[in-house]
Amino acid sequence: MTLLDGKTLSNSIQDEIKQKTDKLREKNITAGLAVILVGDDPASQSYVKMKEKACDKAGIYSILHKMPSSISEEKILEIIAMMNKNSNIDGILVQLPLPRHVNQTKIIEAIDPAKDVDGFHPFNVGRLVAGLEGFVPCTPLGVMRLLNRYNIDVKGLNACVVGASNIVGKPMMNLLLNAFATVDICHIYTKDLASHTKKADLLIVGVGKAGLITEDMVKDGAIVIDIGINHLQNGKLVGDVDFENVAPKCSFITPVPGGVGPMTIAMLLENTIKAAENRTYQDNV
Ligand code: GUN
Predict the structure, then answer these.
(1) Angle between helices 122-129 and 169-178 (to 10 degrees)
(2) Is-catalytic flag, 51?
(3) Is 218 touching ligand 1 by the criterion CB < 6 Å?
(4) Is the domain of 99 the same as that of 171?
(5) Which among 229, 257, 223, 220 has a CA at the least distance from the CA of 167?
(6) Which of 146, 147, 155, 187 meets the CB 3.0–4.6 Å disulfide criterion with 164?
(7) Total tally of structural domains belonging to the chain
(8) Are 197 and 235 found together in one domain?
(9) Strand ranges for 49-115 from DSSP E
(10) pLDDT by residue (tens digit) across 179-188?
């Protein structure tokens, strides 16, 4: 069993990004990311803090628009319009979830697709589905990069994705399909989840339910990617997979923490640099 070490890979990607931001700065360009955080959800606050810290280390300018949960949809749309127009901002990220009175779709659709470093805008979603170049959501993109680092080719593999969210499961499914895996996607209404997971050469789980995947649900020699982040009462951070009992059966498995989580951050920085490099190109023509 080999551990898929996302932390080490993420650190080396972040070093490469630092070199890229230094190069951009020689051309008088500082890559910039605007983060919009609404409300005081502790998990969102902690993710945003990690993103800001990573930007700082990588030489990316970041600005945080922090708003109370009572803020109106119009006000958020105003900020987005301002960031769309701001030529120092290459990427715009609205931390999800948003408060219930705010229409999430409307907010995401207001972001300029060229600055949509989360890859959530339907323009970029459509490009991913069609197999075209565009911004791809950071977590599933990070999974593909991690597999690639360990020379795991998904072509022809039976892949099973558990969780069908717009942020993780659906883009994960499309990336795997574009790379010619055979993909099963499971969700809350799936009957007999184990019958799907047991067939998988590559099992990817992003649900947010500790202990969901037990040893009897995993094929011998499977590659297991755990995207779940669950804080247990005892303060321990675990994924969705019963790591202790599942790991011995696997050829490869991601730890939690230190697997997919750090890759998400690295991919956000990479998407922001990609947007900034596009800016250079546009300025040169
Ligand atoms: N909430 C949970 N994951 C994410 C993410 O990758 N991006 C944003 N914007 N919000 C999230």
Answers:
(1) 30
(2) yes
(3) no
(4) no
(5) 229
(6) 187
(7) 2
(8) yes
(9) 61-67, 91-94
(10) 999 999 999 9
pLDDT at 282 over 70: no
Q: Give the separation between CA 213 and CA 158, rounded to whole angstroms.
A: 17
In the reported structure, the alpha carbon of residue 1 is separated from the centroid of ligand 1 by a whole-number distance in angstroms of 30
3-class secondary-structure state, position 69: coil
* Spatial distance between the Cα atoms of 119 and 166, rounded to a whole number of angstroms: 10
Residues 109 and 61 in one domain: yes
Active site residue 90: no
Cβ–ligand 1 distance for 94 under 6 Å, the answer yes
Distance 93 CA to ligand 1 centre (A): 8
Question: Residue 254 sits in which domain range?
Answer: 138-260
Catalytic residue among 118, 201, 240, 242: 118
Q: What is the pLDDT of residues 87-106, one digit of tens each?
A: 999 999 999 999 999 999 99
pLDDT above 60: residue 285: no
How many Å apart are CA 25 and CA 251, to the nearest integer?
43
Q: Which residue's alpha carbon is at the smallest distance from atom 2 of ligand 1?
A: 96
